């Protein structure tokens, strides 16, 4: 088991940009008169100070997480094999392709090895660029080879520093988004500080560096910042075109770097759809965003050699359905309240039916089954019937795919983030409901003008989008803990925007009959500054203590195993075992695998279930036959899986296998009535007794406190 042990040895105020205050003089034609020279100079100074703050905080965050990584593992001092083992589970698999490209005789041969790979899955040749999102590893490896830095920087440092550098991009994008929403860079400063002080819940980059989301989320944050700017009113055509280009590039890079891109894009498309139906976003801009999503995904599909999982994604079917439904239903946004509601219900039903039909048709034509495990998991998770499906239960029993733990909210509340978020969310939700009702009713009465001014914050398309985006991704985070990082980072943006927004405070003060322009301005700046000072003074000592704590990577059993494999087995040997361990075997030794953690392939899922029979109640001849069918030369058994205590009964890997095989589970507790006792003992336990029925097929060639390696006999 991998463990970590102790190591032995200025504030100010600024004018709002692009959000004129309520005192701004407006000409009868709606145009704002130009600011005097002093105002322009102040704006330039404010943008300069805010920009410097954004870059500085981004770089500080990058240095912060890099220092935590070094202090936690003593990365600069440990051996190469220990560094590679520290890339846990699927992280090691992804990094192995970067290493493979670096060590290839040429770039062309490296690419050929990825396109025609026969070491990731034994007795199969697969296209890694099609199956996995590893273009970032390819790009980095090529960049490392062509830049004159080999003498000064090791490949592993070039890789991890790039990921830590992307954290700077991430924080800058969050900072800019909050700044754009509120009109003051003070909001961005608060968002960045909240992101840092809530690091446990906003990122895990320091200990899962190569994870796909650590590549993708910075680009997603850039895309959201660009969408926030795009949804502003009075943009010049050139500004709009440039912003659309940024949205497209960011969407494309986000989709290229993460296999779960389609599900995030679908939630974003749902947010746009809801706001468009409620007439809270410009339809033309929403249409552009739909088209950008589709075109970005199709471009990724081409680069991934026409990956069928992308073509069969729900987001492409949904976006196409929305565009088709618009052409069918004319005058959707005309009429009274009841008329609009009727049209809206029909529109939603039409889009839903078209989405299901188009998606079903595409999957039927392409014979697509790569993502069926996800829908089985969702069906079981939300209570649509119990399942014995091994793959679905494998996800259900993992903490990362469970509900968001309640202690998350206590941590977020300790920095005041969750309290402020709830406060802003309540105000804007109430106001948004009122504005949506008014939009649907089509009321244009003059006497409502004064009331409408009270709710202008929700009439701003960028604020409305941020609200719905936050709510939908919040629902995702509550249902699946692994996805909380998409919500908590935007929570920092949303809460800081609301706290620094003149429109939000104006709305609240008018409701309390306390409104005045001066009071609004004082609150807009004083409360964020007080909050910022509180967070800084409370958490600065903890951050310093965290940075001063020195630890060391310590996993001697895995290191011993990897060294033995490299020195005692042929380069062509094929290894079977758990997905997580085999990813490390590939990275550290370069040996061929039978299975691996990248689970988005039906054949691989079936193969993994078969390989895992080593932990089930099966006969030695059955297990031997299964392993040899995949060309296995060596099988690695782990005591931590065979005698697992981490999960409760029913969620241990051996329990999942027993239920899938129709066998009664071990231990005290209930079993389903149709489960039967197995005719054979558990393979991983019985093989250690060296009985003749086992030694005929398996010979133990290595063991330590954690691992047992058996060589398979090659019978004719």
Rg, alpha carbons: 28 Å
Q: Count of DSSP E strands?
A: 7
Strand order of the largest sheet: 4-3-5-7-6
Structural class: mainly alpha
**What is the approximate shape?**
globular
Helix content: 55-70%
Q: Please count the helical segments.
A: 34
Mean pLDDT, to the nearest integer, reads 89
Our estimate of the beta-strand percent is under 5%
Give the low-pLDDT segments: 9-32, 444-457
Distance between the termini: 37 Å
Biggest beta sheet summary: 5 strands, mixed
Domain unit count: 2
Task: Describe the 3D structure.
It is a single chain. The protein has 716 residues and is mostly helical. It has two domains: 162-548, no CATH class; 556-712, Rossmann fold. 64% of the residues lie in helices and 4% in strands. The chain has 34 helices and seven strands. The strands form two sheets. Strands 4-3-5-7-6 form a five-stranded mixed beta sheet. A two-stranded antiparallel sheet has the order 1-2. Helix 28 (579-589) links the parallel strand 3 (574-576) and strand 4. Helix 3 (89-103) packs parallel to helix 28. The longest helix has 37 residues, at 37-73. It starts with a strand and ends with a strand. Residues 9-32 and 444-457 have low confidence and may be disordered. It is a multi-pass membrane protein. It comes from Picathartes gymnocephalus.
């Amino acid at each position: 088991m991998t463990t970590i042990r102790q190591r032995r040895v200025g504030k100010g105020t600024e004018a709002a940009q692009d959000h004129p205050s309520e005192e701004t003089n407006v000409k009868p034609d709606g145009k704002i008169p130009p600011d005097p020279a002093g105002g322009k100079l102040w704006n330039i100074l404010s943008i300069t100070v805010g920009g410097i703050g954004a870059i500085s905080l981004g770089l500080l965050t990058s240095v912060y997480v890099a220092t935590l990584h070094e202090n936690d593992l003593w990365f600069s001092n440990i051996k190469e094999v220990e560094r590679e083992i520290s890339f846990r589970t699927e992280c090691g698999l992804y990094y192995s392709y970067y290493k493979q490209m670096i060590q290839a005789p040429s770039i062309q041969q490296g690419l050929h090895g990825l396109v025609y790979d026969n070491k990731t899955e034994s007795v199969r040749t697969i296209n890694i660029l099609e199956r996995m999102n590893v273009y970032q590893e390819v790009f980095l490896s090529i960049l490392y080879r062509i830049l004159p830095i080999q003498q000064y920087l090791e490949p592993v440092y070039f890789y991890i520093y790039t990921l830590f550098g992307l954290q700077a991009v991430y924080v800058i994008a969050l900072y800019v988004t909050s700044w754009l929403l509120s009109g003051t860079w003070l909001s961005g400063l608060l968002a960045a500080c909240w992101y840092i002080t809530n690091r446990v819940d906003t990122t895990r980059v320091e200990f899962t560096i190569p994870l796909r989301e650590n590549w993708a989320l910075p680009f997603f944050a850039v895309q959201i910042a660009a969408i926030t700017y795009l949804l502003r009113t009075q943009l010049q055509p050139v500004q709009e075109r440039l912003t659309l280009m940024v949205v497209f590039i960011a969407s494309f890079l986000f989709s290229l770097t993460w296999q779960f891109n389609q599900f995030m894009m679908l939630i974003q498309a749902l947010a746009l759809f809801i706001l468009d139906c409620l007439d809270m976003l410009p339809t033309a801009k929403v249409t552009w965003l739909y088209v950008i999503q589709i075109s970005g995904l199709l471009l990724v599909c081409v680069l991934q050699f026409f990956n069928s999982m992308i073509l069969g994604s729900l987001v492409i079917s949904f976006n196409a359905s929305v565009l088709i439904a618009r052409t069918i239903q004319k005058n959707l946004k005309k009429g009274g309240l009841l008329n609009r509601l009727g049209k809206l219900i029909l529109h939603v039903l039409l889009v839903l039916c078209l989405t299901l039909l188009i998606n079903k048709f595409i999957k039927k034509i392409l014979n697509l089954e790569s993502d069926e495990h996800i829908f089985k998991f969702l069906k079981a998770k939300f209570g649509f019937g119990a399942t014995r499906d091994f793959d679905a239960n494998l996800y259900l029993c993992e903490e990362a795919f469970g509900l968001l733990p309640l202690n998350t909210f206590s941590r977020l509340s300790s920095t005041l983030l969750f309290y402020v978020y709830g406060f802003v969310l309540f105000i804007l939700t109430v106001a948004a409901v009122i504005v949506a009702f008014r939009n649907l009713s089509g009321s244009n009465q003059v006497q409502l003008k004064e009331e409408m001014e009270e709710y202008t914050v929700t009439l701003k398309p960028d604020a409305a989008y941020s609200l719905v985006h936050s709510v939908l991704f919040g629902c995702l985070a509550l249902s699946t803990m692994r996805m909380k990082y998409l919500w908590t980072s935007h929570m920092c943006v949303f809460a800081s925007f609301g706290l620094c927004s003149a429109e939000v405070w104006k709305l609240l003060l008018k409701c309390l009959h306390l409104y005045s322009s001066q009071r609004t301005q004082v609150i807009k700046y004083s409360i964020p500054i007080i909050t910022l000072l509180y967070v800084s003074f409370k958490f600065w000592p903890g951050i310093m203590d965290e940075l001063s704590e020195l630890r060391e990577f310590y996993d001697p059993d895995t290191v011993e195993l990897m060294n033995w494999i490299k020195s005692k087995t042929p380069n062509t040997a094929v290894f079977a075992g758990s997905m997580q361990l085999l990813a490390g075997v590939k990275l550290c030794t370069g040996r061929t695998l039978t299975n691996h953690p990248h689970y988005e392939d039906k054949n691989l899922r079936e193969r993994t279930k078969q390989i895992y029979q080593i932990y089930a109640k099966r006969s030695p001849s059955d297990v031997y036959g299964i392993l040899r069918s995949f060309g296995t030369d060596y099988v690695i058994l782990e005591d931590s899986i065979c005698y697992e205590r981490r999960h409760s009964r029913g969620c241990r890997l051996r329990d999942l296998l027993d239920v899938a095989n129709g066998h009664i589970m071990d231990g005290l507790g209930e079993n389903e009535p149709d489960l039967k006792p197995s005719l054979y003992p558990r393979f991983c336990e019985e093989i250690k007794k060296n009985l003749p029925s086992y030694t005929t097929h398996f010979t133990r060639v290595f063991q330590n406190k954690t691992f047992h390696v058996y060589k398979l006999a090659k019978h004719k």
